[in-house]
Structure prediction request, 325 residues.
Amino acid sequence: MKIALKLTAAMLAAAAFIAPGAASAQEAFPNKPIHMILPFPPGGVTDLLARALGEKLSARLGQPVVVENKPGAGTVLASDYVARAKPDGYTILMAASSLGTAPLIYDKVTYDAVKSFAPVTQVASVVHVLVVSPKLPVANVKELIAYTKANPGKLSYASTGTGTSTHLEGELLKSMAGIDMVHVPYKGSGPALNDLVGGQLGVMIDALGSSGPFIKAGKLRALGVTTAKRSASVPELPTLAESGVPGYEAMPWLGLVAPAGTPPEIVDRLHKETAKVLEDPAIKERFKGWGLDIIGNTPAEFSAFIKRDIDQWARVIKNANIKGE
Prediction:
């Protein structure tokens, strides 16, 4: 009996010694820098967002959050890099809408937008606006549709490149409004906006962050936003759905994902800390100034959103026969 009691006491003592260590191991994340991979070059709105978010997350997590720009191949390069990374929470991706659409457009994409990643949170939606050249004799969406139907195939619309969100949104507008416009792809917003301002083109759907200065200067006319609800960034602008294209909805997004297999507790920690950062009034104001609407949903909600988003654009891509260049 004495031996049994001694063994029991020894086991309890060992358990008491081990338990705190196990608990501290679980609580150790993060214990080294986290690398946030960005599929865009430095200097753009997404880069500003990632660095502002990374700075605040660093303070909350107690470890540096290092933003690494890995542009190329229509965002596929960065996405593939993170999909192959060790699923330990130390390599995460600031993904964009192209995470889901790239595999539908490009043949050599090796990752699966749903199976290869663990969604953390949809950080924000990028406010996109339908803008037209002031030289075009239209003041609203209904007038644009009427003008285009009266001049089929004569009006051109610009995008930031084949397969980009601005291209897909233009094709969605064409199909839902029953209009015919010629797609002209550019390498980025800058050259496209220059030609739009110059009157070489008539129409473009573009991010508010890049088109906003031209709208304020009166060099472009904004007709509406692409989201289902009006944006907090430009509440005076109606949605396309309420302006003559019922049911139109496009929400270009930015969100954090980790490699598939990342432990749920790490995903949950990253989500909770990011959500707290997004509640910061200073962050809200900065995002609004960049033409971004904060989301901050749960991993489950973000996962469901990604699947719906892929389904929507898969139909557009198939109907328009869009192929990567």
User: Anything to note?
Assistant: The longest helix spans residues 2-26. The domain at 128-226 is CATH 3.40.190.10 (D-Maltodextrin-Binding Protein; domain 2).
